[in-house]
Design goal:
Layout (H helix, E strand, L loop, with lengths): L2 E3 L2 H4 L31 H11 L2 E4 L2 E8 L4 E7 L2 E6 L5 E8 L3 E9 L14 H20 L9 E9 L3 E18 L5 E18 L4 E4 L10 H11 L2 E4 L2 E8 L6 E8 L2 E9 L15 E9 L3 E11 L2 E15 L5 E6 L1 E2 L11 H11 L7 H7 L9 H12 L7 E2 L22
Antiparallel strand pairs: 1-11, 2-3, 3-8, 4-5, 5-6, 6-9, 7-8, 9-10, 10-11, 12-13, 13-16, 14-17, 15-16, 17-18, 18-19, 20-21
Helix pairs in contact: 5-7
Amino acid sequence: MKKGRLFAALLSALTAFSVFSVLPVSAEPEPDPDVPAWLPTDRLSAVGFLNEYGKTHVEDYTVCIVRRLSAGDYSDQEIHDRTRVRKPLGNDDLVYSTLIDCESYYLFCDEVFTYEIPEDPGKDDGSKEYREKYKAYEEYQRLVGIYGEEAFKNLPAYEVIAFMPQRVGEFHVELSETRKSYQETATPDGGAEKNETVDSSVIRYSFALSASGIITETDELAWVPDCGNEFDAWKKENGIISAHDGLVVVCKEVNHSTGAELFFGQNGAPCELLRSYRIAREREISTVPLEGEGSRTLELWQPTGAGLTQFGLIAARPWDMENIDQEDIALISTDADGNVRKIKSGCTICDLNADDQLGIADVVLLVKFLTAQTEFNTAQMMLADINNDRKVNAVDLSLVKKMLMTVPDDFPVIDNPITIDDPIVIDDPIVTDVPI
């Protein structure tokens, strides 16, 4: 959850009234608050903001939201003191609206920053303005030589909203987008009829300012990472697979340029994919991923019933299983009230029916798999390879039978199991070496 603290000078003054109205009375006009250094002031810094903080950030008693818009210059119309409507010039079929639903606030910024191709400044007149224009033009020519002119066509614009709330309580910012599309259909008389379709979407960010000067983002998924930095921090703190707010959170990351593939599966009580977020790096110019850059996706899974669920995930090259990019297997529990928690990283070895113990039922499943009567998902393949030789075969079946004969009190948990199901082959009793 994103939070920000009030300036130290205002902490003692903040009440249910305007923070500025409770300051000492002065004959001189009250100075405007200093603009926080981290606020975007142009298109380039807006791109950097998205990569550093994601779409929202709260700091220095300031709320800032940045969203990406379609390319082009924008008209700007204020409907009333808290709502603004913008349209790309010459396009009445696309409308962006912004509502700052806050009773009292100081507005730092509500602008759209676009990319303008620098023009040749012409003859040098020795002025500072000329040098700045020439520097921008020279940089543009350099980048054109690297990416080509196509990379500069239809570059997106960025809307930046930043303000200081001045009343204790809850408030929100609502961003909407409306698009019209048209489709012609044939009429019985041989003519054509034009049909209009309107698609609308609304994103609402909610916040609350406390009497102690803390601003907290309070919308339902405020905790969800929405940029690379937050994705990496979440994964470091919670692991690749975790549970939060009644959901299972899965951090998928794979660098396809290395030939790596991502394998993911669940076993046990079913879960459904609720949302999937692609965590892409915003780029100033080129839309081509940088060499070596990975692909990040955050998935939110919602259990559809009570019980235990195994989640298994790996990223690796099928021909090079000794070098694993990432792996995790976890046991998730959901109770009758819908509470979801991660019981442990790792699962009981060869627990193929996801009941957190090894039993005859698991042996039966393994026999069915070895005789091609059933298939295993990624989590089951990771758990069935008892000796970690990258194969599931009669050797593993023999080891499981021996374990069942002498089950210790502290039955082993597999923390770093076989990490991919693709290269595992069934070489006994079915005679085949074809990867499954």
